[in-house]
């Protein structure tokens, strides 16, 4: 009897858990269908940001991938391919499609006109570091590295022989990769490129020359220095090199020992398709590669399928997503790995269900979709009175060269709060010639914070008022008691 009763309770628990799952699923669907353009969302969730090349209706927009709610539009001219960046969820930055300009918008100010920054040439691609501290743009065959908080052009790297087509960062921001029309992929150490003495003659950590035609796209997975990197090219292949800690350290030592003779990194796997590949991405778990072709097809490749050899010919049309009529220009996957986002030259952005390969939503644009990606819902859109806290300055066109005696007023900063109010402390530090940069930064970090004159005045005024009030109370009490006694 007891065993039957236990089985009955287990069955009841299973039914209850099913009902709980159904209720939670309905709540999640209701939240996803909420109009986020009215800033009523309390919890962050994934949205899509996309742009096109014409800018007839808007430059870029943020929209919900699961419902037909009103989008958030940002007006301006068109955006260049692979040039849309989100800075700490507070600013949107993109390269103009026809002029040597960078356009920037505040995320929470939708009806504003963009802020324009003039560059030394047409920006072919753009990428921002994960911490939004640095921005890298490709201008012809050069890589320009800007510091976002000051706008200083810290370095100009000239190692590509032809135009740079794509840039991507590792998820920890310590390395970045660049691909160009010279068929080369270069891996750079960000810290090394920012050294002022070596910025002009800085060499990349790796040079991958496995492709035979121009590089069209790059994607870095998760894992920092152990990222899996996928590259796409017009030679109808999709290279998949695996960069590990061991290979980076060994290659760097070989480079130092051989005096400029590069040790080529080995390509772990190569995928050959029926059409040139223009875009590539991976899911969050790094189980599949999605490759967008020139004919509008999107190929799905299982990375853990048992194969022989390092080269695979992809002929499995069952794992192909069909719907676009022209070339697929950009791809992105959702955080949970259930949805695939694609943009195409047919002026549409599509949301695909990865498992069933069904298109669940199509968003029309007025031109070629140049950028489309999943992002977390910006926090600043969920609050009514949000203001950007990220310091951003206009990017400079000339290389920033510090003098031997430099006054630091913006480079070394710290944040604190006074009575609940955010306060930014500015350090002014003279750097003599005999003191190194490292010693100067350490001395600035250990320097005592200067006092705020406004805060001091307010504190002194409050103290004096308290003293006056105390004297008045004492005088009044003594007079009242004296009158009562008399």
Question: What does this protein look like?
Answer:
The chain is an alpha+beta fold and 486 residues long. It folds into two domains: 45-381, YVTN repeat-like/Quinoprotein amine dehydrogenase (Methylamine Dehydrogenase, Chain H); 407-472, no CATH class. Helix content is 19%, strand content 34%. β2 and β3 (72-74) form a beta hairpin. It starts with a helix and ends with a helix.
Our measurement of the CA-to-CA distance between the termini, rounded to an integer number of angstroms, reads 94 Å
Number of helices: 5
Task: Assign the CATH class of the largest domain.
Answer: Mainly Beta
| Strand line-up of the largest beta sheet | 16-17-18-19-23
Q: Based on helices, strands and strand pairing, what is the structural class?
A: alpha+beta
Shape: elongated
- State the helicity in percent bands: 10-25%
What's the average pLDDT?
Answer: 76
Question: What descriptive keywords fit this protein?
Answer:
486 residues, four-stranded antiparallel sheet, alpha+beta, five-stranded mixed sheet, 2 domains, Methylamine Dehydrogenase, Chain H, 19% helix
Summarize the structure.
With 486 residues, the protein is of the alpha+beta class. The protein has helices at residues 2-32, 190-193, 245-258, 437-445, 453-485, and strands at 46-52, 60-63, 72-74, 85-87, 91-95, 101-106, 115-118, 123-128, 134-139, 142-147, 153-157, 164-169, 175-180, 185-189, 206-208, 215-220, 229-233, 237-239, 270-272, 277-282, 288-293, 298-302, 311-313, 320-321, 328-333, 339-344, 348-353, 358-364, 369-376, 407-408, 413-418, 421-426, 429-430. Strands 16-17-18-19-23 form a five-stranded mixed β-sheet, with no helix packed on it.
């Amino acid at each position: 009897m007891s065993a039957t009763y236990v089985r009955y309770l287990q069955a009841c628990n299973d039914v209850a858990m099913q009902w709980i799952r159904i209720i939670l699923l309905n709540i999640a669907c209701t939240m996803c269908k909420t109009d986020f353009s009215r800033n009523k969302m309390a919890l962050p969730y994934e949205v899509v940001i996309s742009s096109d090349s014409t800018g007839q209706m808007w430059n870029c927009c943020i929209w919900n991938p699961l419902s037909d709610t009103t989008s958030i539009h940002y007006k301006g001219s068109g955006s260049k391919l692979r040039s849309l960046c989100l800075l700490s969820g507070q600013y949107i930055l993109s390269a103009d499609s026809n002029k040597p300009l960078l356009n920037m918008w505040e995320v929470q100010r939708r009806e504003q006109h963009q802020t324009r920054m003039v560059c030394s040439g047409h920006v072919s691609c753009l990428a921002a570091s994960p911490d939004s501290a640095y921005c890298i743009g490709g201008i012809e065959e050069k890589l320009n590295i800007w510091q976002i908080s000051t706008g200083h052009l810290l370095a100009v790297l000239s190692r590509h022989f032809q135009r740079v087509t794509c840039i991507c960062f590792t998820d920890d921001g310590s390395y970045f990769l660049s691909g160009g029309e010279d068929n080369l992929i270069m891996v750079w150490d960000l810290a090394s490129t920012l050294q002022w003495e070596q910025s002009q003659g800085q060499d990349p950590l790796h040079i991958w020359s496995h492709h035979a035609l121009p590089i069209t796209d790059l994607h870095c997975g998760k894992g920092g220095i152990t990222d899996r990197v996928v590259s796409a090219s017009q030679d109808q292949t999709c290279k998949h090199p695996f960069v590990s800690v061991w290979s980076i350290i060994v290659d760097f030592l070989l480079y130092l020992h051989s005096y400029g003779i590069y040790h080529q990194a080995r390509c772990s796997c190569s995928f050959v398709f029926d059409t040139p590949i223009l875009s590539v991405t991976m899911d969050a778990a790094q189980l599949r590669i999605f490759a967008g072709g020139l004919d509008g097809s999107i190929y799905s490749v299982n990375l853990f399928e048992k194969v022989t050899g390092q080269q695979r010919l992809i002929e499995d049309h069952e794992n192909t997503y069909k719907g676009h009529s022209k070339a697929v220009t950009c791809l992105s996957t959702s955080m949970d790995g259930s949805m695939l986002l694609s943009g195409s030259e047919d002026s549409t952005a599509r949301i695909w269900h990865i498992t069933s390969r069904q298109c669940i939503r199509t968003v029309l644009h007025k031109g070629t979709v140049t950028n489309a990606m999943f992002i977390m819902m910006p926090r600043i859109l969920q609050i009514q009175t949000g203001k950007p806290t990220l310091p951003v300055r206009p990017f400079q066109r000339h290389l920033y060269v510090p003098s031997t005696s430099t006054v630091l007023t913006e480079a070394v900063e710290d944040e604190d709060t006074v009575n609940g109010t955010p306060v930014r402390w500015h350090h002014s530090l003279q750097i003599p010639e005999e003191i190194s940069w490292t010693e100067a930064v350490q001395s600035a970090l250990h320097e005592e914070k200067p006092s705020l004159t406004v805060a001091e005045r307010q504190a002194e005024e409050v103290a004096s008022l308290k003293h006056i009030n105390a004297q008045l109370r004492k005088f009044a009490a003594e007079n009242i008691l004296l009158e009562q006694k008399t």
